[in-house]
DNA sequence: TCTTTAGTAAACCATTTGGTTATATTTTAT
DNA sequence: ATAAAATATAACCAAATGGTTTACTAAAGA
């Protein structure tokens, strides 16, 4: 009954978005991921935990290493959410104009 | 030189996403927005400030009222970011399979 | 077997977040 | 002129966040 991590919250952090960018297309060891940032390895561990908790990253244990792979289909939720508003922002300039007229 | 609010962080909060949903297609008073939630008016004020700081909402002062309109084209940034990874998640099942084979 | 190496876990810390209540401030209505 | 309404501002608070360091555990090499 665990409230599974929210993907919106997961991608809110720039470091986590960078990790996603790094893992897109390639599987990397946790340590290798950490090597790309100026923060400590435990900090990266935490970020990766959050990313796995919402399904954005899959970690496979292999010997003493953790192989991290991006599972980015979880991003579909984000796209779907944002996409539903496309109709609105297409008419945005008009709306703003109306608004300013209304306000005089 | 203000670091303009991050839209990713803005949409991380569920209440703010709900406000966006509420304002999509209709301009509402701050108070009317607040009426749709169980939290105090100052709390809504803060959320709206964050939403305006990243351009997702425009507030027009009209007398003593604030008319809030969604400017959702700012969501394009989110879609664009996520969309760039579509190619990766399409091949996801294979990748995961490879991964498991590799791991035996 | 002994020592690296890879990663986790725990304890801690400062800052941010999301909320509160209470008190202004500014329009509008009476 | 006064009262009510719409919002802002301030002071405050608990919990979450993003980071640290310091062990600890487990696998791999020498």
Per DSSP E runs of 2 or more residues, the count of β-strands of chain A stands at 3
Biggest sheet character of chain A: 3 strands, antiparallel
| Proportion in β-strands of chain A | 5-15%
Q: Provide the spatial order of strands within the biggest beta sheet of chain A.
A: 1-3-2
- Structural class of chain A, by secondary structure, is alpha+beta
Work out the radius of gyration of chain A.
Answer: 19 Å
> CA-to-CA gap between the ends of chain A?
53 Å
Question: CATH homologous superfamily of chain A?
Answer: Winged helix-like DNA-binding domain superfamily/Winged helix DNA-binding domain
Q: Which second-level CATH architecture of chain A applies?
A: Orthogonal Bundle
CATH topology of chain A: Arc Repressor Mutant, subunit A
Summarize the structure in words.
2 copies of one chain form a homodimer. The first copy, chain A, is α+β, with helices and mostly antiparallel strands and 104 residues long. Chain A has a single domain (7-103), classed as Orthogonal Bundle (Arc Repressor Mutant, subunit A). Chain A is 57% helix and 13% strand. Chain A is built from 7 helices and 3 strands. Chain A has helices at residues 7-10, 14-23, 30-35, 41-53, 75-83, 86-90, 92-103; strands at 28-29, 57-62, 65-70. A 3-stranded antiparallel sheet of chain A has the order 1-3-2. The longest helix of chain A is centred in the middle third of the chain and has 13 residues, at 41-53. Chain A is elongated and about 60 Å long. The mean pLDDT of chain A is 88. At the A-B interface, helix 2, strand 2, strand 3, helix 5 and helix 6 of A face helix 2, strand 2, strand 3, helix 5 and helix 6 of B. Chain A binds a DNA duplex (30 and 30 nucleotides) through helix 4. Chains A, B: Pfam families: HTH_5. Chains A, B: This is Transcriptional regulator. Chains A, B: GO terms for molecular function: DNA-binding transcription factor activity. Chains A, B: Residues 1-90 form the HTH arsR-type domain.
């Amino acid at each position: 009954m665990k409230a599974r991590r929210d993907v919106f919250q997961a991608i809110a952090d720039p470091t986590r978005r960078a990790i996603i960018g790094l893992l897109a297309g390639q599987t990397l060891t946790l340590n290798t991921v950490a090597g790309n940032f100026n923060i400590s390895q435990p900090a990266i561990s935490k970020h990766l935990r959050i990313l796995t908790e919402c399904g954005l990253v899959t970690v496979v244990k292999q010997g003493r290493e953790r192989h991290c792979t991006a599972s980015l289909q979880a991003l579909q939720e984000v796209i779907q959410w944002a996409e539903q508003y496309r109709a609105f922002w297409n008419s945005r300039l008009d709306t703003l104009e109306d608004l300013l007229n209304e306000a005089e």
